[in-house]
Amino acid sequence: MADVNVRSIEALLDLRTGLVRYVADAQSSVTRLDHELRRMQAWLTERERYWTREVERWQRELSQAQAELRQCSESVSYDRDGRAQRPNCSGPQSRVTAAGSKLREATDELRTVRHYAKQVDEVGTKFTVQARRLSGIFQKEMSQAAELLNRSASQLQSYINTQVPGIISTGTMPAISGARGTGTTTVSSTPAIRGDGNQSSDPDQFLRFGELSPETKYNHNGYVYETDSVGRTNQVSGQLRLETGIRTSHQTEVGHLGKVNDQGGHLIGTQFGGSPEGFNLIPQNANLNQGAWKSMEMGWAKVLEERKRVSVDMTLSYPSLKNVRPQQFAVRYTIDGKAKTRFFVNRPGG
Questions:
Q1: Cβ–Cβ under 8 Å, residues 72 and 45
Q2: How far is CA 95 from its chain centroid?
């Protein structure tokens, strides 16, 4: 049988990955701009309150100084000869001058702050409108484009699988299969089984984080994990189901490979039968893992209990080839055919 040219599949997948990463980066940029705009608005609001207080303060100081000056000017004394003696009012006069100067300064500052606050509010309103429009494009049009590319690649891969069904089995080692010319290896990872017939929780019997092969697909429990050119998981897909998985100490070890506040996060949660092996674990910010990410998973579990179908497709992006900690996640999922895409940055709050 002639070799099948599958470079078009690689091109489609590369284009899809690039598209999803572009959307994730663009969404992250919009979010950063929104946060910066809100921070600026908050700062201007605080400045306006400060200078309002300063204006009120120097108005009181000026009123008090003016009252003292009037009192001083009206207090006349007489000498033995009956001549009027005017008091020295230079002190109250100096205080009136100083308070008036401070009041003018505070008034000018308040006027300036209000001017720029108004401009920033106008920019913020326009930005919000454009950000919502971009969000609609990201959520709908870009997601549809990524789905089209993914579907096209899947259809081509299905055709190739019917043409090149080669499977290699090596005893207790993972079964490896691959179409000629693809440059990608597929590994079917089978959980290690103890002598009593239960799944082992010994991490030494699993594929560990950092020991994954580059450009490899790991099939585990119905989920597909793909690695990039340096052996990091960058794509995960599959149909979710409620199934209790296991946890191992390797999860904690993976968390220690990231930043100070990281945990070992599961890409496919253990409540969905997610693997304890390295291809399903990443260093993930603890706040994100226990917050927004967990909330998303709880939503999936709830609709699964309602007997709805949930499928996921995740894309991970990294800041550099040497970094093992994902920077961003693009999570596209469908619930009974209705698609939605969410983007997370690997930081508190996501």
A1: no
A2: 55
Between the two ends of the chain, the Cα-to-Cα distance in Å is 50
The encoded tokens of residue 301 equal 């579990």
Query: How is domain 7-76+88-158 classified at the architecture level of CATH?
Result: Orthogonal Bundle (1.10)
Q: Are 276 and 250 in contact (CB under 8 A)?
A: yes
Tens digit of pLDDT for each residue in 316-330?
A: 999 888 899 999 999
Write out the two tokens for 142: 């870009």
316 touches 234 (CB < 8 A): yes
- Token digits of residue 258: 């990231």
How large is the average pLDDT for residues 144-155? 65
pLDDT digits (tens, 9 = 90+) for 46-77: 999 999 999 999 999 999 999 999 988 888 77
Burial (CB count within 10 angstroms: exposed 0-12, middle 13-18, buried 19+), residue 342: middle
- pLDDT of 176 reads 33
Helix (H, G, I), strand (E, B) or coil at 291: coil
Pairing of strands 216-220, 185-188: parallel
CATH of domain 172-345: 3.40.570.10
Residue among 294, 315, 310 nearest 142 (CA): 315
